[in-house]
């Protein structure tokens, strides 16, 4: 609507624009859950850019405009988004959401994603999961749940996703168009891992329901799977 749009940042451009002081999304009044989610979803990938442009039948144009013109485009253009822009979005979400504390309380990123993707923009769920052969369920993101792992000191995302799926007996019903993963929770007192190494690619072969895989003994197509 008259505003120029900017593509996600890649490679050298990402380092040049996003690295340094006064870069990223400015935090204010418990906004970290939203700042981190928005940065992850839009700074360096276009997978969810449909959220910014498509004329959804249920779509709230006001929220979409703030998201596109006040947050994503400035982030990609200058590498910086001021806290007032995020607060503008939070005020709009507080008006729309069933709960009214988006402007001051700390939230779970999943609560934010569900509100903005489902209720405001009307996007279909991104993930289809099946647990223990039961009925499949749909969701927008996957949160890693796991018990303390003594052998994992500095894990990567691949290891965490695989172990979390294994411990919950989960499978992906189909290859997702976008796989949003929330790292293990931690609070001020307890962090499960002090660091997690980002996996730049994720191999989901073993996480897919009914996908052909090779036998680890003979190399032929496997007929049985053990955990």
Automatic annotation (TrEMBL):
<dbReference type="InterPro" id="IPR018200">
    <property type="entry name" value="USP_CS"/>
</dbReference>
<protein>
    <submittedName>
        <fullName>CYLD hydrolase</fullName>
    </submittedName>
</protein>
<keyword id="KW-0378">Hydrolase</keyword>
<keyword id="KW-0963">Cytoplasm</keyword>
<dbReference type="InterPro" id="IPR038765">
    <property type="entry name" value="Papain-like_cys_pep_sf"/>
</dbReference>
<dbReference type="GO" id="GO:0004843">
    <property type="term" value="F:cysteine-type deubiquitinase activity"/>
</dbReference>
């Amino acid at each position: 609507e008259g505003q120029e749009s900017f593509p996600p940042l890649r490679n050298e451009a990402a380092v040049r624009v996003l690295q340094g002081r006064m870069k990223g999304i400015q935090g204010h009044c418990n906004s970290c859950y939203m700042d981190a989610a928005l940065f992850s979803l839009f700074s360096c990938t276009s997978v969810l850019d449909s959220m910014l442009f498509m004329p959804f039948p249920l779509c709230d144009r006001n929220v979409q405009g703030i998201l596109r013109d006040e947050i994503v485009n400035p982030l990609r253009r200058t590498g910086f988004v001021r806290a007032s822009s995020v607060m503008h979005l939070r005020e709009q979400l507080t008006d729309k959401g069933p709960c009214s504390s988006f402007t001051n309380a700390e939230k779970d990123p999943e609560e934010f994603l569900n509100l903005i993707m489902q209720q405001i923009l009307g996007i279909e769920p991104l993930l289809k999961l099946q647990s223990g052969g039961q009925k499949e369920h749909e969701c927008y993101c996957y949160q890693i749940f796991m018990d303390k792992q003594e052998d994992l000191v500095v894990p990567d995302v691949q290891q965490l996703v695989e172990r979390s799926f294994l411990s919950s007996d989960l499978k992906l019903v189909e290859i997702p168009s976008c796989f949003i993963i929330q790292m293990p929770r931690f609070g001020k007192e307890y962090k499960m891992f002090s660091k997690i190494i980002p996996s730049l690619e994720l191999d989901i072969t073993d996480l897919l329901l009914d996908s052909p895989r090779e036998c680890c003994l003979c190399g032929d197509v496997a007929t049985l799977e053990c955990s």
